[in-house]
Design brief:
By secondary structure, the protein is an alpha+beta fold. It has twelve helices and 27 strands. It has a five-stranded mixed β-sheet with strand order 1-5-4-3-2. Strands 10-9-18-13-14 form a five-stranded mixed β-sheet. A hairpin with a 2-residue loop joins strand 15 and strand 16. The termini are far apart. The structure holds ligand MTE. The site of ligand MTE has 20 residues, from strand 8 and strand 13.
Length: 496
């Protein structure tokens, strides 16, 4: 046995919760590396025995970490007593140095070399059947697939073309047969449950609306610059706009016998994408929003005149205008009305905002409401940060949007870091009062002050509630890097 050198990485608290076989932190630091058999590891699968996992030849006691796992305790428990590899193949986002560093803190020893066999669980690529994607997309993670259009393409068109619409997947993309597809809608007491084919959905009155969809993590990369956060490094492109067509959710719910009598109830959605335990992606919205015809919540089967692309929920997804992307459940399989919010991890343990003072040791997900409507947002898409612009006149372009149907009434742009401001010209579809579901594109052509070698371009939007973006990121920093909507800043050079 070789001597243990990384005593500092040992988590003593974790060791103490491990039951009789586990060494204490002190013992482990004093002794040489512990060697564990596969059987020993496999007997550590509960808080009582300690929860152990392996990666390659290393053994980790993650008992204390389970509740802190950003993907939720249940996901980590899938690997309890065995190798992490099959799960990291599915959630490939783990294969990063900071995740390995974090795991290293929980190392308690090595696996008996004779036991270091190939994992018995199926590790073939669960993403092998994912669709082919457009090469222009900037990929933030391949498995699951997460990608955004580059800024200059994002605002090229008011309606984002389907192939470059940002994609946010948590799991492999299901391959669903439109002929056998059924949407199960649980009926109200006294009403009837529905099993709707695509044709059935087409028989409901068809509605078509333009809606901007934004991920809660849009612009997270700016939060990372303040302090590390857990999540994908989205830049300004986790937002896109499409013309969606489908049946209204309120019409479908009414057919299943639902009414707005339970004012506190929620409509829960389940996707047909699922993890190895069969747990599906899920989310919910208040029943009051779902039943409100003015809220225009759709069960969409068309995106920009085409059947939904596979990455965007083929054959049916929910579109909840003015609400965070996480609630627009794709590959929709089941709709039910419940007294409480969805119990999905993504409703209760993610997509929530916290004070900058809250960290992974102190976070209490039950203390914060799930994100529904999003705050006012804008970003500069042209010029790019670090670019050199011509002297004379500079053209600045970007997007602006607010949640809850609040219209953008103004975008202010500064060339000097926020000392002086000019008002940009807004373009795009009419912003309907209380139903401004889609973004504005904006533009400003401004003279470059003579002799200026650099410009600090800043934008901020104002919505019809006179909500305005905060000036800096630090006061809105949160551990998951969501709701990042500070003034967007771009630094450019002026060609001599
Ligand atoms: N629905 C299912 N079934 N599975 C998912 O992973 N991701 C959600 C939402 N709906 C997701 C889902 C999130 S977090 C976002 S931001 C939007 O889908 C992204 O939609 P898009 O990929 O069509 O842009």
């Amino acid at each position: 046995m070789k001597p243990r050198t990384l005593a500092v990485c040992y988590n003593a608290a974790a060791a103490q919760s491990c039951g009789p076989q586990a060494p204490t932190g002190l013992q482990a630091a004093q002794e040489s590396t512990h060697i564990y058999t596969k059987e020993e590891v496999s007997s550590h699968t509960s808080p009582e025995t300690g929860i152990w996992v392996t990666l390659g030849s290393e053994v980790f006691d993650v008992t204390e970490f389970v509740d802190l796992h950003p993907g939720g305790p249940s996901k980590l428990m899938l690997a309890a007593g065995g190798p992490l590899e099959p799960f990291w193949a599915l959630y490939a986002v783990h294969n990063q140095s900071h995740v390995r560093e974090l795991l290293a803190q929980y190392k308690i020893g090595e696996l008996n070399p004779e036991d270091k066999v190939a994992p018995t669980v199926e590790t073939s690529d669960p993403y092998a059947d994912d669709p082919v994607r457009h090469p222009a997309l900037k990929v933030n993670s391949q498995r699951p697939f997460n990608a955004e259009p580059p800024p200059e393409l994002l605002t090229e068109n008011y309606i984002t073309p389907n192939p470059i619409f940002f994609t946010r997947n948590h799991l492999p993309v299901p391959n669903l047969d439109p002929d056998t597809y059924r949407l199960h809608v649980v009926g109200a007491p006294g009403g009837q449950s529905l099993s709707l084919s695509l044709d059935d959905l087409h028989n409901f009155p068809r509605y078509e609306i333009t809606v901007t969809l934004q991920c809660a993590g849009n612009r997270r990369s700016e939060m990372t610059q303040v302090k590390e956060v857990k999540g994908l490094e989205w830049r300004t492109g986790a937002i896109s706009t499409a013309r969606w067509a489908g049946a209204r959710l309120c019409d479908v719910l009414a057919q299943a016998g639902h009414q707005l009598c339970e004012t506190e109830a929620h409509v829960c959605f389940e996707g047909l994408d699922s993890d190895p335990t069969g747990t599906a992606y899920g989310a919910s919205i208040p029943l009051a929003r779902a039943m409100d015809p003015e809220a225009e919540v759709l069960l969409a089967y068309e995106m920009n005149g085409q059947p939904l692309p596979r990455d965007h929920g083929f054959p049916v997804r929910v579109v909840v205008p003015g609400v965070v992307g996480a609630r627009h459940v794709k590959w929709l399989g089941r709709v039910s009305v419940q007294p409480e919010e969805s119990y999905s991890h993504w409703q209760r343990r993610d997509y929530k905002g916290f004070s900058p003072s809250v960290d992974w040791d102190t976070v209490d997900f039950d203390s914060a409401p799930s994100i529904q409507e999003l705050p006012v947002q804008s970003a500069i898409t042209e010029p790019r940060d670090g670019e050199t612009v011509e002297s004379g006149e500079v053209t600045i372009k970007g997007y602006a949007w607010s949640g809850g149907g609040r219209a953008v009434i103004r975008v202010d742009v500064s060339l000097d870091g926020g000392l002086t401001w000019q008002v940009a010209k807004l373009d795009g579809e009419e912003q309907r009062p209380r139903k401004a579901w889609a973004w504005c594109l904006w533009q400003l052509k401004a003279p470059v002050p003579p002799g200026q070698k650099e410009l600090n371009i800043v934008c901020k939007a104002v919505d019809d509630g006179y909500n305005v973006q905060p000036d800096t990121v630090a006061p809105i920093w949160n551990l998951r890097g969501v709701l990042s909507n500070a003034w967007h800043r771009v630094h450019v050079y002026v060609s001599p």
